[in-house]
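Review box. Two proteins, two foldings.
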Amino acid sequence: MKNAKTALVTGSTSGIGLAIAEKLASQGTNLVINGLLEQAQGHALAQSLSEKYQVEVLFDPANLAHPEQIESMFKRAAKTFSGIDILVNNAGIQHTAPIEQFDNAKYQAIIAVNLSSVFYAMKAALPHMQQQSWGRIINIASVHGLVASINKSAYVAAKHGVVGMTKVAALENANNGITANAICPGWVETPLIQQQIDDIASAQKLSFEQAKGQLISAKQPRVEMANPAHIGDLVLFLVSDAAQGMTGTSLPIDGAWTAQ
């Protein structure tokens, strides 16, 4: 699609990232999708999205724990597209344990993927955005970028860092036609969450629905998860002209979690 904008969405082969990518593609945005799939699987997904939405789609398997792979991903994208106009930093991993029991390697991996990759991706994307005086950065943080929970020290530290880094990017580019915002979801219907529900149901001999309600209501007043497509809808708003004055914000989709 000529003259279309190009979006790079990290961690976009499933869940929230894929929903965001599909929403952007539905508006005629070319895509770079990213995830730890085999090349054949990734290319098949890219082709499927391209045919469905009639846009150009490039798959890149960069492991975001490695800065040099992030840099290479942007260089490969520049060979296909003029540059990245919309950057959505979505990729994330999780591990839970008390601080004194937290595995060092898992801590470092969470910081690398959930926080450091956001820095390296913005660093790679900003020069093109600055050159054209237009760009949109949306960092998928978390409700845990605003509040804490036990056993999530690395995740909470990373997501608080993402919120802070988003503010810095917004300040540095406030008059460059570039916005930077963070979205902070609470519970969202994803395969990762389904596994947590299954674990509670098994451990406490509860039905799936009982376990789901227990998981959500422990933190979130609205006992219903957000749909990944709803995150994608907010991304569409943030990349629109209507949101050109919104930058440096942290927007919860958390069922009143942080209202308490």
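Next protein.
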Amino acid sequence: MKILKWILLTLFVLFLIGVIAVFVTSQKRPQGVTSSEADVLAQDMVKALNYKNYSESKFMTFTFRGAHDYIYYFPSKKLKVSWDNKEVYLLLRTMKGRAYIDGIEVLGEEKQKLLDKAWEYWCNDSFWVLAPFKVFDPGTTRKIVKDADGKEGLLVEYSTGGTTPGDAYLWYLDENLIPTGWRMWTSILPIKGLYSSWEGWEKHNDTWYSTKHKMLINLEITNFGIYRNWKTMGYKTHPLHPLTNFK
């Protein structure tokens, strides 16, 4: 009984510490109004990263935190997501696709669960790579605001899209208009206004991509690449061929 009492007490103390940490570290979401100045700043940011070349990309590959592997084909929005012993091929325009476990195709409810899980992984993981290029996505608004510390940044709010609409991100930019970090107000994070860095910038096809993010836990994107065709990726056939007949 004494051991159980100490376990319960320890769990309560840890819970209390967590609540205090959330309360102390959270920041109130700044208010503001949409403006042409904010739109110009957002345009300058994506221009500094060379959005034009990004928008003309064909294939992208990356691994998120060493756990989820991606191959994405920009023109037709075809995607392959691999994790553990699973492979999912997904056509993002229709959310149709194919799923495999240990190389064996699965169907029915099990297939749908894997398609949904792949979509969830993609929405989260790809955003840590492509977010700077999504500041003008449908359902976004842009504002120039100051945070609780008085530091100015570009606030981008998402009313639609992804798996958690309603999220907002406050971008901080350096003198060259390259992002150095952001604060996040998202439904899945208990700490509001949590800061994460954007660093480890790499240049691929003349476009800049961030591959490292530091916050409570560090996120790293590895095996990142931008390719003009699948042959330069080292494949003998199209890596997304299971989606050939999907529309």
